[in-house]
Amino acid sequence: MPLNLPSRLPAVEILKSENIFVMDSQQASTQDIRPLRIVILNLMPLKITTETDLIRLLSNTPLQIEVDFLKISGHISKNTPVEHMMTFYKDFSTLRNENYDGMIITGAPVEQMPFEEVDYWKEVSEIFDWARTHVTSTLYICWAAQAGLYHFYGVPKYPLPQKMFGIFKHKVYDHQNPIFRGFDDEFYVPHSRHTEVRKSDIEKVPELTLLSESEESGVYMVMARGGREFFITGHSEYSPYTLDTEYRRDLDKGLPIEMPLNYYRNNDPKEGPLVRWRGHANLLFSNWLNYFVYQQTPYDIREIK
């Protein structure tokens, strides 16, 4: 797809090397169409990696997309160069009067803290509320999914006895929902988290619809407001070696970590990962963009309410 990105964003060259078509802002300006405007609130520590993972999936439709990156004001990223943040990221204060067709809010390495103790909880809550009146559809991922469910619907999170870590099989509850168009009856998703939300709490809230779960990893996808909000507990956007990198990082630090389940060929890290979530991930993002963003957003983006 023609993905309109800043020409010097590192993800551009990475994705071109993978034979994925991206378009920088200079080339996109020659096309006489209104691109979909997507804003990404990137709360992950390795921001360049997360940017690349998300853009890889956003590139899988024929729609032209213009991407803005949003950061938390005053929060210094320790794992991303300051120059990168200053060049490619904007503060909420500069975007709050804008409207977007879609928004993605990532996970964050704060899931074991109570929500209110996260130093940017006040601002992220304000961004959640803003999205309801300025964005057609918002995709909440991992910690953001837990945070959104808690902020809007009072759904609590619970600590797990050990990290949910690996690739898990999921089932679809509503095959008629367009978000699942093209899905198989079962599909796989990476998970990497220390906490969970529970089905029993989701079912107490009439505004929430549980769309998918796993016998092993629990609740996966919850929908609200007719698809204007999706809460996804897994990491469908992960590249093949993300879990491997996390596993080896924790081993090197001497942290208690089990080998990711259902991930390595023959359960042997030396044989590398068996990738079986990529097809589902591409369908998930293309279905979201097509059926819940592109087909729902008004032509005049200022009419989003």
Textual characterization of the structure:
This is Homoserine O-acetyltransferase. The two termini are 28 Å apart. The protein has a single domain, classed as Class I glutamine amidotransferase (GATase) domain (Rossmann fold, 3-Layer(aba) Sandwich), CATH 3.40.50.880. Helix 1 packs across helix 3. Strands 1, 2, 3, 4, 5, 6, 7, 8, 9, 10, 11 and 12 form a twelve-stranded mixed sheet that branches. Helices cover 30% and strands 26% of the residues. The protein is an alpha/beta fold. About 2% of the residues have low confidence. Strand 1, helix 1 and strand 2 form a beta-alpha-beta unit. It contains ten helices and twelve strands.
Provide keyphrases for this structure:
alpha/beta; Rossmann fold
Summarize the structure.
This protein has helices at 10-17, 25-28, 47-58, 82-88, 92-95, 121-134, 143-153, 199-202, 242-252, 278-294, and strands at 3-5, 23-24, 36-41, 65-71, 89-91, 100-105, 135-141, 158-172, 186-196, 208-214, 218-224, 229-232. It is of the alpha/beta class and 305 residues long.
Q: At the third CATH level, what is the topology name?
A: Rossmann fold
Count up the domains: 1
| Helix coverage percent | 25-40%
* Shape, principal axes of CA atoms: globular
How would you classify the helix and strand content by structural class?
A: alpha/beta
* Largest sheet: number of strands, sense, barrel closure: 12 strands, mixed
At the fourth CATH level, what is the homologous superfamily? Class I glutamine amidotransferase (GATase) domain
Q: In what range is the share of β-strand residues? A: 25-35%
Question: Span between N and C termini?
Answer: 28 Å
GO cellular component, one term: cytoplasm
Enzyme class: transferase
Pathway: Amino-acid biosynthesis; L-methionine biosynthesis via de novo pathway; O-acetyl-L-homoserine from L-homoserine: step 1/1
Pfam families: HTS
